[in-house]
Amino acid sequence: EVQLVESGGGEVQPGESLRLSCVASGFTFSRAWMHWVRQTPGKGLVWVARILTDGSSPIYADSVKGRFTISRDNAKSTLYLQMNSLRVEDTAIYFCARDVDGLDFWGRGTLVSVSS
Amino acid sequence: DVVVTQSPLSLVVTLGQSASISCRSSQSLVFSNGDTYLGWFHQRPGQSPRRLIYKVSNRDSGVPDRFSGSGAGTAFTLKISGVEAEDVGTYYCMQGTAPFIFGQGTKLEIK
Fold first, then answer.
1. Contact A110/A97 with Cβ under 8 angstroms?
2. A108 pLDDT exceeds 90?
């Protein structure tokens, strides 16, 4: 059974940092492109970042470019999102998702709340 | 920049009736390999999204056959033939190649 379990969310103040993790199981993690997507409670889905199988060629939404870094550890089947210089508008549920012909499987998400 | 527009944003349907959701892109979504990575997702409140359709018209495993996707180029449609109570929630289309863009979402309710 495919599973993606996110963790690392929490409440922080503007300007602070957080690192999200997503542990994968039930499939060969090292063969899958992976994404982070976020959703402000009650709002729509917004793509954040994508990384290829070997960790190369990360791409980001303009809203997080230069502040967020996506990475992965294939030996640990884990995807990461390092979030620096957090802003109030980064408050959202963050989902990791596997990419097989598009985002085919999603985790349950972890809530990040940025507030002063 | 590519813009993806869904319509309608809200849909109220009687059980058993059909429903259609439109997704239009400002640019062709045909990828360099000839495939079109347009997907449809369903999200119930408090849950993560579940993909229903990939590459325009392919149903994901376990998705009931009352869900169908169609379209090409810049115009796509998700059709639900015979809405059931469990179909309530919000539906999103998504361009599955960079730039990855979601439609605004269509909230489906039962009358």
1. no
2. yes
DSSP code at position B99: S
At A107, the amino acid letter reads G
Instruction: Report the alpha-carbon distance of residue A25 to residue A33 in Å, rounded.
Output: 14
* pLDDT tens digits along A19-77: 999 999 999 999 999 999 999 988 999 999 999 999 989 999 999 999 999 999 999 99
In sequence order, the 6+-apart residues with CB closer than 8 A to the CB of A75 are: none
Check: CB of residue B76 under 8 Å from CB of residue B69: yes
Answer whether residue B96 shows pLDDT above 90. no
φ/ψ (deg, to 5) at B43: -130, 120
CA distance B84 to chain A (A): 23
Q: Is B59 on the interface with A (CB under 8 A)?
A: no
Residues with Cβ < 8 Å from B81, sequence gap 6 or more? B18, B66, B68
The residue of chain A nearest to residue B93, with distances taken between CA atoms, is: A45
Q: Between A46, A102, A109, which is nearest B48 by CB?
A: A109
Which residues in chain B have their CB less than 8 angstroms from residue A44's CB? 92, 102-105
Q: Do B84 and B19 form a contact (C-beta atoms < 8 A)?
A: no
